[in-house]
Amino acid sequence: MKTKTFLVAIAGLAAIAGLGAVAPGTSEDALQIDVAQSADVAAPAPTRAAVATTSNVVEQASVDAPDAQSMSLNYDVQPVVSSSVSESAAKTQELQVAARAKLTRSLASIADAGDDTLVEVIVNYDTHPELFEDDRIERLGGSVERSYASLKMRAVRLPAAALIDLAIDDNVSFVSRDLPVSATSVASLQTARQPATGSSYSFPVDPSIGVAVLDSGVSEHPDLNVATRVDCVASAGACAAVAESAGLGAFRDEFNSYAYTGSDGDLPWASAWQDFGESNSATSGLARVSSSSYCASGYCLRLGANLDDEGSVSNRGVLRQVDLSSAASATLSYEYRRRGGSSGSVSVSLEGSSDGASWTTLATHALNSSDSSPQTMSIDLENHLALGAETELRFSLSGYFPEESSRYLYVDNLQIELVGGTDNSLQTLYLDGAGDGSDTPNAALKDDAPDSPLTNFDPQRDGSVGLLIGKGGVGSAASDGTKFQLWSTSASSMDLDGPVSLTLYTAVKDFQTSKGGSVTAYLMDVDANGSGDVIAEATVSRGNWDAVGAWTEDSFDFGSVAHSFGTGRNLAVKIVVGSNSEDDMWFAYDAANMPSRLTITASTDPYDPYGHGTHVAGIIGGNGAQSGGLYQGVAPGATLHSVRVLDEQGSGVTSDLIAGLDWILVNGAANGIRVVNMSLGKAVEESVTSDPLALAAEALVDAGYVVIASAGNYGRDGHMTITSPGNSPLVITVGSLTDKGTGSDFSDDFVSTFSSVGPTLIDHILKPDLVAPGNRIVAAMPSNGKMRIELPDREPACGAVCSKQYLEISGTSMAAGMASGTAALMLTQDPTLNPGSVKARLMTSARGIDAEPTAAGAGVLDIEAAIAAGGYVTAAAPSPAMARSEEGPVILVEDTAVLWSGQPDPVTETTETNTTPDTSTGWGAGFLWTDAFLWTDSFLWTDGYLWTDAFLWTDAFLWTDAFLWTDGFLWTDAFLWTDSYLWADAVTDYDPLYDASGQSMHLNDD
Question: CA 48, CA 534: separation in Å to the nearest integer?
């Protein structure tokens, strides 16, 4: 049994609901009490606290959540055995009661039902289970879904009736539900005081310091340096390395000679460079191949004018054709360097075209200044062009050269890298059957192509392979079943992001006369009754319909469509014959040789189809390359390791997340991983001492990894809403701060309303540890990530190069990324820091804010101050626990001076007797949360805010070496946190916490 040392806090405070009670008789003058925390034992209520007095008399008390006022229940269940029951039966009953105590409350209820419903659970073992455990589970009618190499756990599926038998084994310590896990998202770097370039605190992050991002994946974004990728979702076994996208090769020109024909890649260009606007060679004119020290190598492409070229230079340059039709995506990159001046207005634009007629600006280089060294440009062509066989690129000059002036852009090592395969899939849905003329769609869009040909069609005799739609329909609301047809298919898991087109085979009614008219196709999002909204529409009109007596193939182009369908929604195609048509129209369907069909180009990112992980990674280590440095992360260029544990919807299960942590335990050291970011969470159903996710996270802390987790986005539900693994005292738990955008004036900043509030459910740990900016954060995003498709209005307006590359979202996920980037910088400065020292420095350097500690922790992340902070902790710097005493209105907060002090002498001291901090090793009684350091009258909770001038934690009374919150000077029963106040708003409906899928990641911004 472990003991913890608490300091008596706040004499005069009314008893706080939801905290363990000190046994009667404890003196209010006692500075320290011992709190015995027994291992979690399952009980009908998930909350318990065990508090001991100074004489080590232990009183077990429990709380039946959500009734946080009740403190008298005791769940030490003793079986009652009648005299008629044999000793063997009594023993069996005793074992079953003990086994039931190893189940969470929800699992115990499921076990009591005793049916054959399959349940997903995670089993904690005292020792690593042997192979025969798999056999035992199989005999119970179950199966092992996941085994772990380093963690003493199994993910198991078995019938509910077998839960007690599963837990009855002596080696089983606890059984938890395999709960859902969800990502926690909803000019912040200034608020966090990121060191400005050139400051004494600014330095590049060490590339050997790796940051693991456990999330929905990390895309191949130009801003991000991703060293490894593993996927823990696709396989039930160990996390598998993610194969690189299928590379098709690259077009490349290194300009190694005075020629326009350079082809240095493994793919041949479709043409050489060609001048336009002038008819010069590769060695003359405003565009030419040049040899200059400004070239990245010996030769390069030069565009510009010298002293003799005064005047307008617009519409002159070079172009080259390239066949990109085989690519799913293509990335253009080149090195450039400007030699410019302040006078004149000259620029060079890179433009692209899919057809040689219309041009899109991809990048612009103004020649109004010079570059001291070569720069790099990277552009995802798929975001701007249709990748076809006739794609053209051109560098075009514009503007006016001043007299006697030279302006040049030097371009070198230009390359187009092609990727094919997995990130651009084509889906075709075929029109199947005709409806009955009602509004309800009963004609289907089906996946498989028709197998019967369209033959012997005679509309006067047999319409079984054709559908007649009468003329006169008006708009998508046409409701006369003879004037429209609606085909549909379930689309609740479908996303549209790319070109969509419809191919129809049509004919005028009598097949004998050419007549004019129009047909309109509507792409729709409808419910089961056919009611809904138009996503896109396309119309084909003809003065005379094509060949008499034959079918006409018509293509309806909806353009590029970005749309996500909700639960229970259907994708539908509605066909209407316009009122201006001269006759009714026949439409062919379900015919092998004329298959009317809807073609969908559905683009998904192969590495992060959702986008959340990429955004978090961008906050941690994005270099801002795609935005010209505008949207950098905290540690630009940091080495990232993508550990995918969430699916394409940003959801997952605990067992997959634990598999990711297990992978890091096995492979992290070899890959240089030092920081682990978990911007996600699950419900809290059991004590942190039994929570499998918290235990797995703590195993990483014990192994030397800095583990950072988001607090959760349930703050609007009240106190005790911290999610797991943020409920672990060893993990660094980060809440969100809302910056009101007033620059260096931080007085109006506040804890985001969505940010989860402590203390933790069941264990009452003081959380979060600190807060960081998490509201309206712009960071990297895959262009075809689901989040970007769902939130088009949150794309920043940063020009064509930035298009679809960034997104603004909010949440404690973003705040956790801020802290992880800071930890990477701290470890760069001092690689010897252990997890406890990183956590303690982050907390002690945090800036104060007017908020209670259960909302803001130690305060607001201050990156510069964290880098400058000193002090070491030899242990893990656990967050303090909170408890209440029945000996008067007293709140107890665990003494961090003892928690964070040196380890006891193994010969002369034990944990129980080491009540005097060893201040020589770092944080002793005089360092953290003392009268001069943290939460003082000038630092936090200031005049007029909460605890006023007369009672505020002033220098004489705040957490000093000799006293702590004593004698009625703070939190009195008449002022704050009384029986009817504190945590009265604590979450009482736990279902949202238990079901992470119920948490919206698209939060309302503060």
Answer: 54
> Residue 904 is encoded by which pair of tokens?
């006891």
Burial label, 943 (beta-carbon count in 10 A; 0-12, 13-18, 19+): exposed
Asked if residue 167 lies in contact with residue 160, where contact means CB atoms within 8 angstroms, the answer is no
Q: Give the separation between CA 139 and CA 134, rounded to whole angstroms.
A: 9
Q: How far apart are CA 964 and CA 891, in angstroms?
A: 10
- How does residue 453 score in pLDDT terms, banded at 50, 70 and 90? low
Cβ–Cβ contacts within 10 Å for residue 847, how many? 20
The pair of structure tokens assigned to 289 is: 């191949």
Owner of token pair 């909803």: 186
Query: CB–CB of 346/397 below 8 Å?
Result: yes
Please confirm whether the linkage preceding 853 is cis (ω < 30° from 0).
Answer: no
Distance CA 671, CA 89 (A): 55
Q: What is the distance between the alpha carbons of residues 753 and 750, in angstroms, rounded to a whole number?
A: 8
Q: pLDDT tens digits for 280-296?
A: 789 888 899 998 888 87
> What 3-state class would DSSP assign to 655?
helix
377 φ/ψ angles, rounded to the nearest 5 degrees: -120, 135
pLDDT 10s digits, 700-731: 999 999 999 999 988 888 889 999 999 999 99
Hey, CA dihedral for 211, 216, 221, 226, is it positive or negative?
A: positive
The CA-atom distances, in angstroms, between 385 and each of 268, 391, 800 are 20, 8, 11
Beta strands in 647-769 (DSSP E): 651-653, 673-678, 680-681, 706-710, 732-738, 750-751
Residues 716-772: pLDDT tens digits?
888 899 999 999 999 999 999 988 766 677 788 899 988 999 999 999 999 999 999
- Give the whole-angstrom CA distance, residue 718 versus residue 727: 15
pTM (2 d.p.)? 0.61
Instruction: Check residue 344 and report its DSSP letter.
Output: S
Q: Name the residue among 676, 642, 639, 756 with its Cα closest to residue 993.
A: 756
Backbone angles phi, psi at 998, to 5 degrees: -80, -5
- Assess contact for 899 and 873: CB atoms under 8 A: no
pLDDT at residue 545 above 80? no
Q: Evaluate if residue 316 carries a pLDDT over 60.
A: yes
Token pair for residue 690? Answer: 């039994």
Query: Which phi and psi (to 5°) does residue 846 adopt?
Result: -65, 145
> 966: closest CA among 6, 7, 10, 5?
10
Q: Is 95 helix (H, G, I), strand (E, B) or coil?
A: helix
Phi, psi of 814 (to 5 degrees): -65, -40
| Contact assessment for residue 22 and residue 9, using Cβ atoms and an 8 Å cutoff | no
State how far the Cα of 154 lies from the Cα of 656, in Å rounded to an integer. Answer: 11
According to DSSP, the residues that pair with 725 across neighbouring strands are: none
Q: What is the mean pLDDT of the chain?
A: 75
Sequence-distant (6+) residues with CB within 8 A of 580 are 516, 517, 518
C-beta of residue 764 within 8 angstroms of C-beta of residue 20: yes
- Alpha carbon 184 to its chain's center: 7
Dist CA 952 CA 939 (whole Å): 11
Q: Any bridge partners for residue 317, and if so which?
A: 276, 396
The torsion angles phi and psi of 556, rounded to 5 degrees, stand at: -105, 110
Query: How far is it, in rounded angstroms, from Cα 214 to Cα 230?
Result: 10
Say yes or no to pLDDT of 463 above 60: no
Residue 448 CA to residue 432 CA, distance in Å, equals 10
Cβ-contact 665, 699 below 8 angstroms: yes
d(CA 650, CA 185): 10
3-state SS assignment for residue 786: helix
365, 290 in Cβ contact below 8 A? no
For tokens 């769902």, the residue is: 790
Checking phi first, is residue 576 left (phi over 0); if not, alpha (psi -120 to 50) or beta? beta
DSSP state of 458: B
* Distance of alpha carbon 575 from alpha carbon 595, whole angstroms: 16
Give the C-alpha distances (Å, rounded to integers) separating 188 from 164, 616, 937.
Answer: 50, 14, 26
